[in-house]
Design goal:
FIST_domain_N, alpha+beta, FIST_C, globular, 2 domains, 26 strands, FIST domain-containing protein
């Protein structure tokens, strides 16, 4: 696997045309994706982002990605709804299911609100099979994201990699529970909307638990998201916005009649180091997906350089992007980094 980093679409075009035998995945702005779709061939996957991760670390407005050996990979379009693609998805899985190094990489429309539906469509997979993915972004405009297979715009794409060497899937989040919980008493999961917590307007009760004025709540989302602790692992559901009726829209679904924990941040530098310590081998390549709210936090606190220094110290052969949601195994969540290390 070879990381790719281009500063212009012209450089990307030259590489694509010079390497017709390679499979290529590229991450960049919506505008660049649309331009590159005019010359991309079927072996090129394009995904819009809210930032790019490169061999030089975090960047914005560039083109990152990777090239791979095409005979090791099955590329499958994910239609809407995803159940329409189940035969192809299951067939691709059956080809690699007995390879412990194999994995699926998913890219899906980050404004569709359908990621949970996509993940439940993968019910046929063994729960230990490696799945990593990210939702396409548009630099926080929330107007249009883009995923392409060559010149065709699609809802999503799944790539099954029948990888011959060791791979390791890792998840890093920066939060732990405050011990305070909210009961979701009125919600519309399909719209990712929560109307009430503890039978009070969602924004009112959320701010009350944090002990802050209601008009300061959106500023607290970055450091105090909500989440669920499952088997000692925290899965984050990030709030997107407070609506005029004091309901809250989230980046992923929250079911009614369930509890969610109010979270608080850990020491980010310690978290970075713990992730590196968890690596079972020195990686030759790293693929990573980083949540938009995580990126905004790092930008506001000037923390990206610290993460870059940590990650790039183990391998400079890296690619990834800033997403509107992350996927790992059978779950979709937020405010997390998911990465896959390749031996």
């Amino acid at each position: 696997m070879k990381s790719l980093y281009f500063k212009t679409t012209g450089q990307a075009r030259e590489y694509i045309q010079s390497n017709p035998d390679k499979g290529i995945v590229l991450f960049t702005t919506v505008e660049n994706v649309k331009e590159m779709s005019t010359f991309a061939t079927e072996h090129v996957i394009l995904c819009s982002t809210a930032g790019e991760y490169t061999s030089e670390g975090f960047k914005e407005g560039v083109i990152s990605g990777f090239a791979y050996q095409r005979d090791l990979v099955d590329v499958i379009e994910i239609k809407s709804p995803a159940i329409l693609s189940i035969d192809e998805l299951q067939s691709g899985y059956n080809k690699v299911r007995n390879n412990k190094n194999a994995f699926m990489f998913i890219l899906y429309d980050g404004l569709s609100g359908q990621e949970e539906s996509v993940m439940t469509t993968l019910f046929f997979m063994d729960e230990k099979f490696k799945v990593i993915g990210g939702s396409s972004g548009d630099y926080v405009k929330f107007k249009e994201t883009a995923v392409y297979i060559g010149s065709r715009k699609v809802n999503g794409v799944a790539l099954y990699f029948n990888w011959p060497r060791r791979t390791q899937l890792l998840k890093e989040n920066l939060y732990y529970t405050t011990g305070q919980r909210l009961l979701v008493t009125d919600a519309e999961p399909l719209n990712r909307l929560v109307r009430t917590f503890n039978n009070r307007p969602a924004a009112v009760e959320y701010a009350n638990v944090l002990g802050i004025p209601e008009n300061q709540l959106e500023k607290a989302f970055m450091n105090n998201p909500l989440g669920k602790v499952i088997k000692d692992s925290t899965y984050i559901t990030s709030p997107m916005k407070v609506n005029p009726d004091k309901s809250i829209t989230f980046y992923s679904q929250i079911a009614p009649n369930t509890y969610v924990d109010v979270l608080q941040p850990l020491d980010v530098h310690q978290c970075f180091q713990e992730t590196l310590n968890a690596m079972e081998f020195k990686p030759a390549f790293i693929l990573s997906v980083h949540c938009i709210l995580r990126s905004l936090k790092f930008k506001s606190e000037n923390t990206w350089k610290s993460l870059d220094d940590k990650l790039l110290s183990v391998s400079r052969n890296q690619a990834g992007f800033i997403s509107y949601g992350e996927q790992i195994h059978n779950k979709h969540f937020n405010q997390t980094m998911v990465l896959l290390a390749f031996e």
